[in-house]
Design goal:
heterodimer; A: Rna Polymerase Sigma Factor, Chain: A; 10 helices; elongated; B: Arc Repressor Mutant, subunit A; Phosphorylase Kinase, domain 1; 2 domains; 11 helices
């Protein structure tokens, strides 16, 4: 049931309380999508204002961050995804090719979880692997791991069925793991 | 359950805590007896933690926060201001003629204020018809007039949903129905045509914010996506109603600025009487798209009907 209309002051107070705490999360997602600070600022601002405009439609008790991310992604699809962004790999095969292009040999070895959490597994390498992921896998992983949405919320944000989210998360992690193994191998850091 | 099934069907959900109770129990039992899958689960959780740590939440810049606060304040002020204040604000608007409107703009309060201001301004006859004769030639308006004439002779829609049934159309259709903002519009429009045309425009990478003129007694007759002589895509939407027809054109034009001598301004929309036509010019909040609505009806009628569309967009 949507929120009933109250006074403008009530609306603003409720928005400040429930929506604005997610501004950093919205900005983070906007940066990921737009890939430059200027567009990210505009995208985040438009998302916040649109959320304010339609705040009566937000269902109290549901995940406000997920609701705002849905607006953000739709806004991005409608207004920003017009060739302005650097194109990432389109498919899992192409992704693998991009990783291989970084002088990485095919590798089926496992990641050592302790190594994964060690200082050697730097954020830079995680970012490298994430950036090269096909869009759909990266978006699913970011929404689950960084934005901490559940699978159903991710499905709502991305506008895909729940099963697709499960598949993307599973395949995305497998691709990440493979990429990190290759990076380790290339740098002579894999002990297995 | 074998290892292949666990890894393909359970592993990610297990690491994310997304398994239903029965499935989770089955997953727990499998990893308890399988060191390889147990290691995979630990690895998945570690990878999840590293992604969160490395690609975590970034703090929004202070200037962005300030901009947002200012925009929200403006929205509230527009909503809270007494009517005489709103009228005074609108009376002052012609001073902005010639400025390029800059996005983003809060649409809802503008819509409310616009509707109220229109009613009052029309009542006191404040629309300045004398300005019309002074408008110098505007190529974009000339294009609108030419298309208006073309479409009076024949308008053949070319954007039913099935015209864009390749690739993403299923996804877009689904998104359209789940988008909280779009759903707001669709609830009132109650027409498949509205969604179909909007979806087709979106598939062509064009703005899909159709005017909902149903409250003003119009029906949407159809839409077209074409290309201009220089290759720019352009969308045309035809609305038909008791007061006549309205043709909407939308295309990208980074050089366009609002011409001088508008008869009135309503938020981000400016209205003109131009060579016997009534024209509404709007700038999109994002990108360089402009929208031109053109009709033969009196400009006051066009303003009233567009205000109704704006108002219907925020009253649902």
């Amino acid at each position: 049931m949507a929120r009933k209309s109250g006074t403008a002051t009530d609306k603003r107070l409720a928005f400040e309380r429930e929506a604005l705490p997610h501004l950093d999360a919205i900005y983070t997602a906007a940066l990921r999508l737009a890939r430059n600070a200027d567009d990210a600022n505009d995208l985040a601002q438009e998302t916040i204002l649109r959320a304010y405009r339609f705040f009566d439609q937000f269902t109290p008790g549901s995940n406000c961050r997920a609701w705002m991310l849905t607006i953000l992604y739709n806004n991005f699809r409608n207004s920003y995804r017009r060739g302005a962004r650097e194109r990432p790999a389109d498919s899992a095969d192409e992704f693998s090719g991009e990783i291989d292009a970084n002088s990485l040999d095919a590798d089926q070895s496992r990641i050592n979880p302790e190594e994964l959490l060690s200082s050697r597994m730097t954020g830079q390498r995680i970012e490298l692997a994430l950036a090269a992921l096909p869009d759909e896998f990266r978006e699913a992983l970011i929404l689950v791991d960084v934005q901490e949405l559940n699978y159903q919320e991710v499905a709502d944000v991305l506008g895909v069925p729940l099963g697709t989210v499960k598949s993307r998360v599973s395949r995305g992690r497998a691709l990440m793991r493979r990429a990190l193994c290759k990076l380790d191998r290339a740098r002579g850091k894999t002990g297995t | 359950m074998d290892c292949r099934e666990y890894i393909s069907e359970y592993l990610a959900g297990h690491a994310d805590g997304e398994l239903a109770p029965l499935a989770r129990r089955a997953g727990d039992e499998h990893v308890a007896g399988c060191p390889i899958c147990r290691a995979q689960l630990i690895e998945n959780r570690a990878l999840k933690a590293m992604v969160r740590q490395s690609a975590g939440i970034v703090k929004a810049p202070a200037d962005l926060k300030a901009r947002i606060r200012t925009a929200l304040d403006q929205a509230d002020r527009a909503n809270d201001a007494p009517w005489d204040t709103r009228l005074a604000a609108f009376a002052a608007m012609p001073r902005r003629i010639g400025e390029r409107l800059r996005a983003p703009i809060v649409w809802a309060p503008a819509g409310i204020a616009a509707a109220i201001a229109i009613a009052l301004m029309i009542a006191i006859g404040s629309v300045n018809h004398r300005r019309a004769a002074a408008i110098p030639p505007v190529p974009q308006f000339e294009l609108a007039i030419a298309r208006y004439h073309d479409f009076q002779r024949e308008f053949v829609p070319n954007v039913p949903a099935e015209a864009y049934s390749d690739g993403d159309s299923t996804l877009y259709a689904w998104v359209m129905n789940r988008d909280p903002v779009r759903r707001v519009a669709a609830d009132e429009a109650q027409t498949d045509a509205f969604d179909d045309i909007a979806r087709s425009y979106r598939s062509a990478n064009m703005p899909d914010d159709l005017f909902d003129l149903t409250q003003a007694g119009y029906e949407i007759a159809g839409g077209r996506v074409d290309r201009m002589a220089d290759g720019r895509p352009v969308t045309y939407t035809l609305y038909t109603g008791r007061a006549g027809q309205i043709v909407s054109l939308c295309f990208s034009d980074p050089t366009m600025a609002a011409p001088l001598h508008a008869v009135n301004w309503l938020g981000m929309r400016s209205f003109y009487e131009y060579k016997g036509y009534s024209i509404c010019l709007s700038f999109y909040p994002t990108g360089h798209f402009i929208s031109i609505l053109i009709s033969r009806m009196p400009v006051t009628q066009l303003m009233r009907d567009i205000a109704a569309a704006d108002l219907s967009g925020i009253s649902r």
